[in-house]
Amino acid sequence: MTMTHYMELLAVNQPWNLLIFMAVPVILAETVAISELYLLYTRDYDGPVRWLNRWAGITVGVYFTGVFIHLMQNAVVPLTASGGWRGPADVLAVGFYLAGIVPLGGIALLDLGLIGRGRGEHGRMAIHAALVGLFLIVAHIAMIFGMLDPTLLSGAVAAGGHAMH
């Protein structure tokens, strides 16, 4: 069975690619998500948990911007130009992974005070929480499609399998 480029990226150059492209952004995003629950429950927006939440939000947004640029230049553009995609699941996995730039970048912009200025702290945290939720959705969709045989959605017959009509 062939892997999607998403899974191949995580599998090669062990453990570095797994750390760079999965562990660092997910640990930072989960730090934001977990601290977010505390903040929304307590409304304590001035303590150390808010500092951690803000630091992790800015860090993950800036970090993932670098990942996004790197993968666009070194994977998406070359694969598209050469016709190297392995099927629809491959494109969906990489596309949803890279779509993480929208919520993660939004979180960083919010935490840097560049957007949401007209809202109170609780209002900004509501946007923050929505962006965290959006990130969880796109990241999990990327993982699901990333684990598929990339030819599965193309109608091609995978090794040992049968095409459904």
From TrEMBL:
- Write the record's keywords in alphabetical order, separated by commas: Membrane, Transmembrane, Transmembrane helix
Q: Does the keyword Hydrolase apply?
A: no
Q: What domain of life?
A: Bacteria
Pfam families cross-referenced by the UniProt entry: DUF6803
Q: Fetch the InterPro entries from UniProt.
A: DUF6803
Transmembrane is among the record's keywords:
yes
Parts of the chain that traverse the membrane: 20-40, 52-71, 91-114, 126-148
What protein name does the entry list? DUF6803 family protein
Q: Identify the species of origin.
A: Azospirillum brasilense
